C-alpha cells in the first residue's frame, strides 16, 4: 500500500506544479519608477495587492506564477537596475513541489541573495510557506529544512533578515484552512494577515 500512496503523492505534486508552472513564462509587471520596495517571488507574491496595502510606498511586484528559484535568479536584472532600498523575497515552494531537494534549492537561493546584496539595501527573506496540498508531509519536511537553512544564513551573514510568516499563516505546520484557497495559494484573509504582520513588525518603516 505504501508504494501506490507514494506514487500518487509524487504524481499529485508534479501535476499541481505543472498546472502553475506555465505561468512562469509570463512577463513581469510593468516597472515602477524609483521603487522603494521590491518583492521577488512566485504566484503567492504575485497575487498580493501590495500597492493597495502600502499606498505610501512605490511597490515593484516581481512575483510570477509558477516561478522557481532558478527562474528568479535569471531575471534579477530589472530588480537590480531599479535599485530598491528594500527587497522582500519568498521563493522555493515550486522547486520543492517539483521534487528538488531542499539543499539544492538553498544553493540557488543563496545565489539570489548574493546578487541582491548591497550595503545600503535591506533584504527580507520571508519563509517559504508550508502547504496543505497535494503532498503536505513530504513537501513540508523539505520546507522546514529550507527555512532552517535560510534563517541560519541570515543570522550568520547579517546580510538579510529572516521573516517567519509560517508563525502566522501556518503555525500548525500546514497552512491554516482559513488562509488558503487550495492548500498552496493564499485567500484574501491570508494576504491581510501577511500584510498586517509586515506593518506590525514595521519592516517597511525601517
From TrEMBL:
GO biological process, alphabetically ordered: lipid metabolic process
Mind telling me which Gene3D superfamilies this protein's record contains?
A: SGNH hydrolase
Q: Does the keyword Transcription apply?
A: no
- Signal sequence, start to end: 1-29
Show the GO MF annotations. Answer: phosphatidylcholine lysophospholipase activity
Among InterPro entries, the record links this protein to:
Ester_Hydrolysis_Enzymes (IPR051532), Lipase_GDSL_AS (IPR008265), SGNH_hydro (IPR013830), SGNH_hydro_sf (IPR036514)
Keyword set, alphabetical order: Signal
Would you say which domain of life the source belongs to? Bacteria
Give the SGNH hydrolase-type esterase domain ranges.
Answer: 39-193
What is this protein identified as?
Answer: SGNH hydrolase-type esterase domain-containing protein
Identify the taxonomic lineage of the organism of origin.
Bacteria, Pseudomonadati, Pseudomonadota, Betaproteobacteria, Burkholderiales
Amino acid at each position: 500500500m505504501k508504494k501506490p500512496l507514494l506514487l500518487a503523492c509524487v504524481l499529485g505534486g508534479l501535476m499541481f506544479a505543472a498546472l502553475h508552472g506555465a505561468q512562469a513564462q509570463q512577463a513581469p509587471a510593468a516597472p515602477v519608477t524609483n521603487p522603494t520596495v521590491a518583492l521577488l517571488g512566485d504566484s503567492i507574491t504575485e497575487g498580493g495587492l501590495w500597492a493597495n496595502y502600502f499606498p505610501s510606498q512605490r511597490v515593484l511586484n516581481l512575483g510570477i506564477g509558477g516561478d522557481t528559484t532558478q527562474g528568479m535568479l535569471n531575471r534579477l536584472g530589472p530588480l537590480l537596475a531599479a535599485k530598491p532600498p528594500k527587497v522582500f523575497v519568498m521563493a522555493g515552494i515550486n522547486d520543492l513541489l517539483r521534487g528538488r531537494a531542499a539543499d539544492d534549492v538553498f544553493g540557488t537561493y543563496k545565489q539570489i541573495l548574493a546578487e541582491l546584496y548591497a550595503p545600503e539595501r535591506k533584504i527580507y527573506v520571508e519563509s517559504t510557506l508550508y502547504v496543505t496540498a497535494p503532498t503536505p508531509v513530504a513537501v513540508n519536511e523539505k520546507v522546514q529544512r529550507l527555512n532552517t537553512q535560510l534563517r541560519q544564513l541570515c543570522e550568520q551573514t547579517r546580510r538579510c533578515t529572516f521573516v517567519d510568516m509560517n508563525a502566522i499563516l501556518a503555525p500548525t505546520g500546514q497552512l491554516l484552512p482559513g488562509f488558503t484557497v487550495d492548500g498552496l495559494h493564499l485567500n484574501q484573509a491570508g494576504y491581510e494577515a501577511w500584510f498586517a504582520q509586515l506593518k506590525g513588525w514595521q519592516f517597511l518603516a525601517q
